[in-house]
Structure formats: structure tokens, C-alpha cells
Amino acid sequence: MADPFAWDATLLRRYDTHGPRYSSYPTVPSFSEDFGEMEYQAALARSNADGRPLSLYVHLPFCRKSCHYCACTKVTTKSSKVVEPYVSRLDREMVLVSRQLDTRREVAQLHWGGGTPTFLSLDQMSDLIDRMHARFGLSSARDRDYAIEIDPREADVFTLRHLQALGFNRLSLGVQDLDPKVQRAVNRVQPRILTEALIDEADRLGFRSLNLDLIYGLPFQTRDSFAATLEQVIAMAPARLSIFNYAHMPERFTPQRQIREEDLPSAEEKLAILRTTIAMLTEAGYVHIGMDHFARPTDSLAIAQREGTLQRNFQGYSSHAQCDLVGLGVSAISCIDDVYAQNHTSLDAYEGALDAGHLPTARGIRLTFDDRVRQHAIERLMCDMELDLDELSETFGIDAPRYLAEALERLETLQRDDLVILEGKRVIATPLGRLLIRHLAMAFDARLPLHPDSQFSRIV
């Protein structure tokens, strides 16, 4: 098994600092509590002028069990009684949002995340889809992108048939690792047969694309054990793979306190797992999109990257460019017009705002001109693995090399280490630099805190 590029573990360890994932720029720590409901309503109204398609994200926070690695906003409960009041609050939020929006705009993208969306019963899923259709008018277009995250322990073949009837055409299955010892250590015991049965049924039903989520850096993982998981996953032939770097931050995420630090793979072993992952997936024909995403060359993500239309948002990489993102539910984040707006992360505060007749906006930010320039630069770097400064100059009416002179100067050290190539008016990440793309993006971040280690995970 040959490496797809020259590997330098020493260099990777040196640059393995803490930094943002750049699902947004400015990043969430820059959001202000001075930004509230009125500012969000104004942005919703302004967005109608451009008439961009809509992307709806719905956060469904309920889980029957808590996975020890989890850093998501969730509610652990075995009671299905919590769903009805939550869906009722979601409907109130949708009503308040839809009053500000031209609902003739196409809903080109829909994503249900969590938590565990399949915690909902089939009837509850139908009810929520019906309410969304009533408020926004869901699309039946062939090229729509309607995805849902699935826990194979909370779904079966009947679930998939029902989801297809509701209009979903993409699935994302949480797997994390197939090694039983690792599964027990993170409180997610999930027999391989559950995942395989769903993949087979999804293929039979003709779902457009299927993604599997894996995590490296979990307790008891080794390069050999993870290679065994990857071998089984490759045989399942998913169109996409998301292979996340586990960030152990028990001081911020309570469930992670159940994981013993001494059981985690060493930094050296973790790098070896990453190296094995890239080599095996490249050999199997997957394209490394960037960061933790891999896709078949025929998948829409890979096609969008080749065509320069790939985007990045809070759900990862997206092939649907130029959508306004409306986030619904506790902790959900919207990206509308020139603002980011986040809902309350506490379920009580979220419900309280809606019960009082208000949008549950807790904080946000309106982008300055400088923010928009840097947002564009960072997104293109993260999506294309290169940045065309001439295109940036033309888009914003600036002399980009002069405007971003300090950022380009910061990249010179990385150029000497062969992580980036500065070629005329282009900034190009080398194969090794792609693994450190977050570090390259940090050069353009004018809002980066002095001590990012307190807020962000490690890069590799």
C-alpha cells in the first residue's frame, strides 16, 4: 500500500496546533449577544431581494443513549413524549421565520441533524415534514439535496422506505468504528450487520448518495484496528465518507469525561491512523475532498470541487452553492444574507423564547466588508485547496495581494516547509498542506483569538 504523497510526520506534528474548522467565518466565538431577534428578522427580509434558494437545517437533539465522544447539543432520554412539544416549538419557529421570507423561494437543500433524527417515530417524521411543507413549500425537483443523519441502532428497512416517501434522497449513517472494543469504550455498541442491512436497503431503494461517519483517535484504536474497520467499510462502497478527528475536550463536553486519556492513541499512533486512512481510501478510488471528507469521483461533492462550486457550511461540505441557510431548532445556526445567527443552546431558553412569541435568536454577527473578503478567501481555500487572488480582486473590487499582504506574508513560512505554493496570483496547498488546510486558512483570519487552544480542537 503506497502513500499517495510524501509524508512528513515531524512537520505534521509541528503544525498540529489548535484552530477553527471554518464551518463559518467569522467563527462562532466571534458571535455577539448584542445581535438578536430584530437583526435576524431584518436579514431574513433583506435576503428576499436576491431570491437565492433556501437550505433548511433542522436540529433534532434527542438521543436514547449518550456516546462518550459526543460534542453535540443533545438531550439524552428514553421517553418519546419529549418529541411532540419540541415539534410544536419548531413549528412556531417556522411560522415566525416564514413571515419574513418569500416562501416562493425553492428549498433546494434540507438536512435533519442531531442528536438522533431517527429518534422520532415514523408518524412524527411525517408530521414534521408536513409542517415544513406548509410553512416553506418543499421541493420535488430531481436535483434537490434532502439528507438525514441516521443511527443504525434507531432505524430499519421500514424507516428508509418511509424517509424516501417523505422526499429524502441522501442518507448519512453514524458508524464511528466497527471494532467492538472501541464501541464499548465509547458507549456505542453497534453490530456491523445493522449498518450493512441499511446500506443494502438504501442501495436497493435508489437513494442518490450515502455517507458513513467514522472517527479516528478514539480509545483503543490502532493503525491496524482502524485499517480493519476501513477494509469492511470500503467493501460496503458508500459514495461518501466523513472521517472526523476526535477532539478530546472533557473540560467542555461532559460525556467525554467517561473516556480515560490513557486509553487514547498516542499522537504518533493517531498520525499513523490518518496516514493509513488516506492511503487505503485513495487506493480504493476515493477523492480526498478536504479536511475529513472523501467521495467517489462520480459523487456530487467531487464534481462540485472539480467545477469550483463546492461550499462549506455547518454541515460540512456542500455541492449546492449560493443557498441561504435557515437553521431551525435548539442551537441551530443560520447564514442569511450577510449575517450569522444562532439559536439558544439551552432547550429551556429555546422553548421559552418561542412560548413568548419570539424567535429564539441568542447571538450572531453581521459581516463587515473585511469579513466578507476573508470569508470568501477562506472558503475557497478550504473547498478548492487553492485561492485565486485575481478572482478575489474582481469579486470585491480590491487589489487582493495588497489587501491581504499580511496573510500572504504569514504563508511564507509554510511555503518554506512545502505546505503551500505561492505561484503568481495563486495560493495552492500542497498534498501535505491539504492535511493542514485549517492552519493555512488561519493566516487569513483577522479575528483569531490569542489563545485558540482554549476554544478549538487540534488540526490533525
From TrEMBL:
<comment type="pathway">
    <text>Porphyrin-containing compound metabolism; protoporphyrin-IX biosynthesis; protoporphyrinogen-IX from coproporphyrinogen-III (AdoMet route): step 1/1.</text>
</comment>
<dbReference type="InterPro" id="IPR007197">
    <property type="entry name" value="rSAM"/>
</dbReference>
<keyword id="KW-0560">Oxidoreductase</keyword>
<dbReference type="Pfam" id="PF06969">
    <property type="entry name" value="HemN_C"/>
</dbReference>
<keyword id="KW-0408">Iron</keyword>
<feature type="binding site">
    <location>
        <position position="176"/>
    </location>
    <ligand>
        <name>S-adenosyl-L-methionine 2</name>
    </ligand>
</feature>
<dbReference type="GO" id="GO:0051989">
    <property type="term" value="F:coproporphyrinogen dehydrogenase activity"/>
</dbReference>
<dbReference type="InterPro" id="IPR058240">
    <property type="entry name" value="rSAM_sf"/>
</dbReference>
<dbReference type="InterPro" id="IPR004558">
    <property type="entry name" value="Coprogen_oxidase_HemN"/>
</dbReference>
<dbReference type="InterPro" id="IPR023404">
    <property type="entry name" value="rSAM_horseshoe"/>
</dbReference>
<feature type="binding site">
    <location>
        <position position="63"/>
    </location>
    <ligand>
        <name>[4Fe-4S] cluster</name>
    </ligand>
</feature>
<keyword id="KW-0627">Porphyrin biosynthesis</keyword>
<feature type="binding site">
    <location>
        <position position="188"/>
    </location>
    <ligand>
        <name>S-adenosyl-L-methionine 2</name>
    </ligand>
</feature>
<feature type="binding site">
    <location>
        <position position="67"/>
    </location>
    <ligand>
        <name>[4Fe-4S] cluster</name>
    </ligand>
</feature>
<dbReference type="InterPro" id="IPR010723">
    <property type="entry name" value="HemN_C"/>
</dbReference>
<dbReference type="InterPro" id="IPR034505">
    <property type="entry name" value="Coproporphyrinogen-III_oxidase"/>
</dbReference>
<dbReference type="GO" id="GO:0046872">
    <property type="term" value="F:metal ion binding"/>
</dbReference>
<feature type="binding site">
    <location>
        <position position="114"/>
    </location>
    <ligand>
        <name>S-adenosyl-L-methionine 1</name>
    </ligand>
</feature>
<protein>
    <recommendedName>
        <fullName>Coproporphyrinogen-III oxidase</fullName>
        <ecNumber>1.3.98.3</ecNumber>
    </recommendedName>
</protein>
<feature type="binding site">
    <location>
        <position position="70"/>
    </location>
    <ligand>
        <name>[4Fe-4S] cluster</name>
    </ligand>
</feature>
<keyword id="KW-0963">Cytoplasm</keyword>
<dbReference type="InterPro" id="IPR006638">
    <property type="entry name" value="Elp3/MiaA/NifB-like_rSAM"/>
</dbReference>
<feature type="binding site">
    <location>
        <position position="213"/>
    </location>
    <ligand>
        <name>S-adenosyl-L-methionine 2</name>
    </ligand>
</feature>
<keyword id="KW-0479">Metal-binding</keyword>
<dbReference type="GO" id="GO:0006782">
    <property type="term" value="P:protoporphyrinogen IX biosynthetic process"/>
</dbReference>
<comment type="similarity">
    <text>Belongs to the anaerobic coproporphyrinogen-III oxidase family.</text>
</comment>
<feature type="binding site">
    <location>
        <position position="247"/>
    </location>
    <ligand>
        <name>S-adenosyl-L-methionine 2</name>
    </ligand>
</feature>
<keyword id="KW-0004">4Fe-4S</keyword>
<dbReference type="GO" id="GO:0005737">
    <property type="term" value="C:cytoplasm"/>
</dbReference>
<dbReference type="GO" id="GO:0004109">
    <property type="term" value="F:coproporphyrinogen oxidase activity"/>
</dbReference>
<feature type="binding site">
    <location>
        <position position="57"/>
    </location>
    <ligand>
        <name>S-adenosyl-L-methionine 1</name>
    </ligand>
</feature>
<feature type="binding site">
    <location>
        <position position="149"/>
    </location>
    <ligand>
        <name>S-adenosyl-L-methionine 1</name>
    </ligand>
</feature>
<dbReference type="GO" id="GO:0051539">
    <property type="term" value="F:4 iron, 4 sulfur cluster binding"/>
</dbReference>
<dbReference type="Pfam" id="PF04055">
    <property type="entry name" value="Radical_SAM"/>
</dbReference>
<keyword id="KW-0411">Iron-sulfur</keyword>
<comment type="function">
    <text>Involved in the heme biosynthesis. Catalyzes the anaerobic oxidative decarboxylation of propionate groups of rings A and B of coproporphyrinogen III to yield the vinyl groups in protoporphyrinogen IX.</text>
</comment>
<feature type="binding site">
    <location>
        <begin position="69"/>
        <end position="71"/>
    </location>
    <ligand>
        <name>S-adenosyl-L-methionine 2</name>
    </ligand>
</feature>
<feature type="domain" description="Radical SAM core">
    <location>
        <begin position="48"/>
        <end position="284"/>
    </location>
</feature>
<comment type="subunit">
    <text>Monomer.</text>
</comment>
<keyword id="KW-0949">S-adenosyl-L-methionine</keyword>
<feature type="binding site">
    <location>
        <begin position="115"/>
        <end position="116"/>
    </location>
    <ligand>
        <name>S-adenosyl-L-methionine 2</name>
    </ligand>
</feature>
<feature type="binding site">
    <location>
        <position position="333"/>
    </location>
    <ligand>
        <name>S-adenosyl-L-methionine 1</name>
    </ligand>
</feature>
